Amino acid sequence: MNRSETMDVKAFPKIGANCENAVRCFFDLNQQDLRVYRELLENGPGTAQEIGERIGRDRSTAYRSASKLVANHLAVKLVKNRGGGGIYHVYQAVDPFQVQTLLKEAIEEWYNEVMNVVERTAGELRG
Fold it and tell me: Domain total for the chain?
């Protein structure tokens, strides 16, 4: 699998059941997204421009990853005021324990959906 690709739930057991793969799999993240999360966690909040500089990527790449993290509740987007007027956005990683809770919830939701399908299988196969 390409390092930048996201992971499918079915691939999870085959590639190794570890924390990074679980987070990537259940939140549809790629390696770059996780790199941005870790960068924010280790070095604190930053703008897309700052994050890009810290990871050696351009602003738009950092922005896409930060936005995915926000959409999955693994980071928050804060609005800051500029001194002379205007605003800018800063991204901040959520606590890893919160990620753990979100991951448990995602796995439980997935499990319940799969079990509902399993329960309907015999009836649906009969037509």
Answer: 1
- In this structure, which amino acid lies at residue 21? N
> Residue 106 domain-assigned?
yes
> pTM of the prediction?
0.81
Closest CA to 6 of 28, 35, 34: 28
Instruction: Give the contacts of 68 (CB within 8 A, at least 6 positions apart).
Output: 28, 29, 33
Q: What is the largest CA-CA distance in the chain?
A: 69
- Do residues 65 and 32 touch, judged by C-beta distance below 8 A? yes
Could you report the per-residue pLDDT of 27-62, keeping only the tens digit for each?
A: 999 999 999 999 999 999 999 999 999 999 999 999
Instruction: Print the domain residue range for 107.
Output: 9-126
Q: What share of the chain is helix, strand, coil (3-state, %, to 5)?
A: 65, 10, 25
In a domain, 62, yes or no: yes
Query: What CATH number does residue 30 fall under?
Result: 1.10.10.10
